[in-house]
Amino acid sequence: MSATIQFRQRGTVTFPADLRKKYNINVGDTYHLVDLDGIFVLTPMKPMVPELAAEIERLRREAGFSTEELLLALREERARYVTEAYGDSDGENE
Within its chain, how far is the Cα of 2 from the centroid? Predict the structure, then answer.
């Protein structure tokens, strides 16, 4: 597909509606621009946090854990890590 775009004031570019629809481009989406010696490549920048949160939630449900149980296990693991990495909680290092 080929399309013509025009830069407006302040560098604003409007992509044709059919491209926005085809690639599910929405207001507020962020793209990374790479300049390959005058050839511009746009790649979507998808935030990973929402995807990771959804995956953690899916795994939590599959495992049958409540949110409270998961948080308790995380706190216990963090305490175990701190003890192994830095020694006892009373300030003495091994």
Answer: 31
